Amino acid sequence: MKKDYDVVIVGSGPAGLTASIYTIRAHLKTLVIAGSNPGGQLMITTDVEDFPGFPGGIQGPELMAKMRKQAELLGVEFLDENVTNVDFKKQPLKISVDDKEFSCKATIIATGANAKWLNLESERKLIGKGVSACAVCDGAFFKGKDVIVIGGGDTALREALYLSKMCKTVTVIHRRDKLRAQAALEEKAKNTNNIKWVWNSTIIEFSGDNRLTGVKLKNILNNKISELKCEGAFVAIGHKPSTDFLIGHLKLDDRAHIIVNNNIKTSVPGVFAAGDVHDYKYMQAVTAAGAGCMAALEASDYIAELKHKK
Q1: Is the pLDDT of residue 293 over 70?
Q2: How many CB atoms lie within 10 A of CB 226?
Q3: Which of 4, 6, 87, 137 is catalytic?
Q4: What is residue 84's DSSP assignment?
Q5: Between vectors from CA 34 to CA 78 and to CA 18, what angle results, nearest 5°?
Q6: How crowded is residue 198: how many other Cβ atoms within 10 Å of its Cβ?
Q7: 293 is catalytic
Q8: What is the mean pLDDT of residues 65-89?
């Protein structure tokens, strides 16, 4: 594996892989540092029916495998390890993976964001089998069914409102007796007839063997245990962008997302961001792929300017 590249892309979800396809086709020597768990959040998504080009839908892992294969056939190099350090103080930019150091003219950060989970064993067992962290991705599979949303912030209410348009009932389960969401969202949700509420309660178990059948709840005021039947559960307690390794190297907002301008340039020249690592609003595979394309084109322009200055 070489040490010097035109572009190093960190992350291998739709944003990173799309970016790599564009940079390699621009004749830029490209390395994707894919992470120890390559593929991003689509690796834990089953049926994907909202990514263009697959009229019958496609499994999340299969989609990522096809995107990676396309990049590999074009000549993109991959390293399935995690970045441990970066040095963006001057050209060339430097990125380290343990004792291996790579230099590049431009880098694209596409490390995404991970949904926060409840960290229950029963939850892990049923992810993709009734338990999800994305209503837009998976809500259509629960048309006409009873589902729950776990959380009390903006994310939870947006998920609940989205699901209310297709599901029979949507029960919001919150560990407090007051929501943390915007007032406008709260008002809209409380005025939606098929949205129900369970307050002061936490999930202690997801029920079902090969498919979710319900949840066990614990009331935090009286410790009473109850059961609620449902066919879908959407965990909506937020996302955490994968930016810990960038603290002190790039400007991040108060939620740890990378701050970018309209052209997805970061606070450091030559460093670009794409996907959920900066996008906390849309968070879709197709928007991440689009951002990856934009970042690659910006990186290509930046490298051309570097050469022109020489």
Answers
A1: yes
A2: 11
A3: 137
A4: -
A5: 85
A6: 17
A7: no
A8: 97
32-46, 69-83, 154-168: lowest mean pLDDT where?
A: 32-46
Burial degree of 138 (CB within 10 A; 0-12, 13-18, 19+): buried
Q: Which structure tokens are listed for 152? A: 């009390």
138 given a catalytic annotation: yes
Q: What is the mean pLDDT of residues 199-220?
A: 97
230 is known as an active-site residue: no
Cis peptide before 61 (omega within 30 of 0): no
Largest separation between any pair of C-alpha atoms in the chain? 71
Six-digit token pair at 5?
Answer: 């590249």
The single-letter code of the amino acid at 237 is I
pTM above 0.85, yes or no: no
Report the C-alpha gap between 231 and 151 in whole angstroms.
17
Instruction: Identify the active-site residue in 138, 146, 276, 279.
Output: 138
DSSP 8-state secondary structure symbol assigned to residue 116: P
**Looking at residue 90, what DSSP letter applies?**
S
DSSP for 173-213, please give it: E-SSSS--S-HHHHHHHHT-TTEEEE-SEEEEEEE-SSS--
CA 273 to each of CA 91, 261, 263, 269, 282: distance values in angstroms, whole numbers, following the listed order: 18, 10, 9, 12, 15
Report the residue count for the chain. 310
Distance between start and end Cα atoms, the chain: 27
Under 8 Å CB-to-CB from 35, ≥6 apart: which residues?
Answer: 11, 12, 80, 81, 82, 111
246 close to 82: Cβ distance less than 8 angstroms:
no
Look at residue 280 in the predicted model and tell me its pLDDT.
Answer: 86
35-60 average pLDDT score: 86
Cα 147 from Cα 106, distance rounded (Å): 45
Q: Which of these, 61, 28, 31, 33, lies nearest to 285 by C-alpha position?
A: 61
Q: Determine the average pLDDT of the residues in 154-175.
A: 94
Tokens of 16: 């990173």
Mean pLDDT of the chain: 94
Marked catalytic residue, from 104, 134, 167, 230: 134
